[in-house]
UniProtKB/TrEMBL annotation:
Residues 6-184 form the 3-hydroxyacyl-CoA dehydrogenase NAD binding domain. The keyword Oxidoreductase applies. It comes from Evansella alkalicola. The keyword Oxidoreductase applies. Signal peptide: none annotated. Residues 187-283 form the 3-hydroxyacyl-CoA dehydrogenase C-terminal domain. Keywords: Oxidoreductase. InterPro entries: 3-OHacyl-CoA_DH (IPR022694), 3-OHacyl-CoA_DH_NAD-bd (IPR006176), 3HC_DH_C (IPR006108), 6-PGluconate_DH-like_C_sf (IPR008927), 6PGD_dom2 (IPR013328), NAD(P)-bd_dom_sf (IPR036291). It comes from the Bacteria. This is 3-hydroxyacyl-CoA dehydrogenase family protein. Belongs to the 3-hydroxyacyl-CoA dehydrogenase family. Pathway: Lipid metabolism; butanoate metabolism.
Amino acid sequence: MEKFTLGVIGAGTMGNGIAQLGAQKGMKVILWDMNEELVSKGFDRISATLSKLVKREKITDAQKEEMLSNIKTTSKLEDLQNVSVVIEAIVENLEVKQDVFRQLDNILAPEAIIATNTSSLSITSIAEATGRQERVAGMHFFNPAPVMKLVEVVRGYKTSDETVSTLMDLAKQMGKEAIEVKKDTPGFIVNRVMLPQFIEAIRLVEEGVASPEDVDKAVKLGLNYPMGPFELQDFAGVDIGLHVMEYFHDEYKSERYAPPMALKRLIRAGRLGRKTGAGWYDYE
Ligand code: NAD
């Protein structure tokens, strides 16, 4: 029987993780990025990650080689023409995603499914670029994709039940727990729950109620979360948090999601989190 082939669009952080995961689970994967340099850089990163697993004796050298042999890289979208499911993980920009979806719609077989890993954009708006809106959905992985257990499968306005069930099955084959998000909504479930917590945590600090350290400690010990809201913002990028708040604020037109001033101040000072060596905390 022919093996399932998965297309992955974008060889950045998330695309690499998703491609690696597919390859680890024995799927044939075609990984695309804009040019050969980007896509081979992505492949090298996957290889380096698998080497670490070999070192830690999680997989053997032979298994690593087999996993890598499951991945084919390309910078030509046409090479994805026989793929039955594509997962897109390129920049978080609606026009750019729509442009790629439009091209994929012309290249793929009519029955193929195109999923997007977007964290915040409307699935319906992305799907509108195609003539197959019932076969477009969100498939939201978390970072790092090979490790994090959850996948949110998100319906656009016209996504069919069949598409949802194929993607739920795919997530399962990838060793994930999938949940269905029944309506296209800002932040889906996880970010919708998490964002108000970030905002409340920042407001507590702004009001002088507690320090970031104590808020983090309270949340970790009182709610049994592995990371506090300030640690998590620094880990994910403080600027990403602001970007998502601004998006929610704009969509809901509600002060509930107004980005706190302390957050803007931090970003203007170039403190974007771990990636810049400082955010709510100092790392250097
Ligand atoms: P990244 O910056 O690591 O990778 C983005 C990729 O997009 C790169 O491979 C880049 O070459 C490609 N790209 C850039 N401009 C392009 C263009 N004009 N046309 C085609 N490709 C282009 O980003 P990432 O963190 O992997 O995020 C990718 C997607 O996954 C985004 O939609 C993001 O919201 C979502 N996401 C990210 C995370 C996360 O924690 N990083 C988690 C869940 C979902």
